[in-house]
Amino acid sequence: MTIDIREGDRKSAFDAALNAYGADSPYVPPLWSDFDRTFDPAKNPFVTEGHGRYALFSAHRDGRPVGRIAASIHDASNRKHGTTNGAFGFFDCVDDVEVADALLRAAERWLADRGMTAITGNFNLTAMQQIGVMTDGFDKAPFTDMMWSAPHIARHLARAGYKPVFPMTTFEIALDQGHPEQLLGDKQRAVLADTDFVWQPIKRSAFKVRLEDARLILNDGFAENPMFVPPTAAEYLFQAGDMMWIIDKRISTVVYHRGRPAGAIIAIPDLNPLVKLVGGRIGLSAPFRFLKHRFSNTRAVLIYQSVCRNLHNRGLNGAMLYRTALALREAGYRTLGGTWIVDVNGASLRQVEKVGARPLHRLHLFTKPLATS
């Protein structure tokens, strides 16, 4: 059967993953409204601020969308790192060689035509959004902001000449079985006792101020990390601004040291069970469903934590995680998901091990050189 590749059909691209994986899989779609505005070049600061470019492709068989892929160029990243790299993202499809190859060819051709010499993914669309292709743990449901892809995605990439690199793991912590006190050494206790550190919850009344301080802390703390490009205020707000409606002030914190932003730990209630239930589309019953979920939900997810570089190795990271673990338990949460940690980040891996984290999913980036035209 002929595979028809279309460009820019956002609705078909959204439906393609649902069609490919089915309602019984652990796959959770993004919210349609988020997906739609992400690929609207008039709204996404990634494009409007000149940081990058992208194209969205969907594969159709007999008129039905059965796969999708995004091709993107992060121009700001290439300028910073002196590279000519492109990326694929949102790669989901039925288990079919023709469909997978047609989508990969579309992305590779788009990037090669623009002078890119390598392709790597998934990046959805940047390193500060969902990344990776799942390589193990397929039967386990993802938390919010975690990637999930079917086993055949990695197989099709390997068959098409892509190599797995940058191994990562996501984690799950049973809060009532963990031992957060193991995070406390002399440095962490000193931080908790030091009145120069002021701990501020992220409340709706001060949401934008705290969010901007959290961005500054992220950009400073991650400045030397591979692939990191600091998000601008507009990019960060575009990605995180909707958290205001779901934030739980008891579990997210911005820490100040002598009045200056010092550390941030961003945790939110896990919305994936609700998003899966409604298929990613918010209808008239959404407010009722959200309230019901809010009162019954016992799952949270740690999106990220960061400490400014001048306070690295002072014990603030461990102190923040300790306080957050206690706050989560007191607020009634029973399970905490942790987004990816790369294998070479031994310090973070040791930290989550201390609180009893168990591996949830295994992921890799997949990369391939491109022959430019």
Give a written overview of the molecule:
By secondary structure, the protein is of the alpha+beta class. The protein folds into 2 domains: 4-168 and 364-369, Gcn5-related N-acetyltransferase (GNAT) (Aminopeptidase), CATH 3.40.630; 174-362, Aminopeptidase. The protein has helices spanning 10-21, 32-38, 45-48, 75-81, 97-112, 151-159, 186-193, 207-221, 233-240, 272-277, 286-296, 316-330, 346-354; strands at 4-7, 52-61, 64-74, 85-93, 118-121, 123-124, 130-131, 133-136, 163-174, 197-201, 253-257, 260-269, 299-307, 335-342, 358-369. Helix 7 crosses helix 12 (316-330). The longest helix has 16 residues, at 97-112. The model has no long low-confidence stretch (mean pLDDT 93).
Short précis:
The chain has helices at 10-21, 32-38, 45-48, 75-81, 97-112, 151-159, 186-193, 207-221, 233-240, 272-277, 286-296, 316-330, 346-354, and strands spanning 4-7, 52-61, 64-74, 85-93, 118-121, 123-124, 130-131, 133-136, 163-174, 197-201, 253-257, 260-269, 299-307, 335-342, 358-369. The chain has 13 helices and 15 strands. It has 2 domains: 4-168 and 364-369, Aminopeptidase (3-Layer(aba) Sandwich), CATH 3.40.630.30; 174-362, Aminopeptidase (3-Layer(aba) Sandwich).
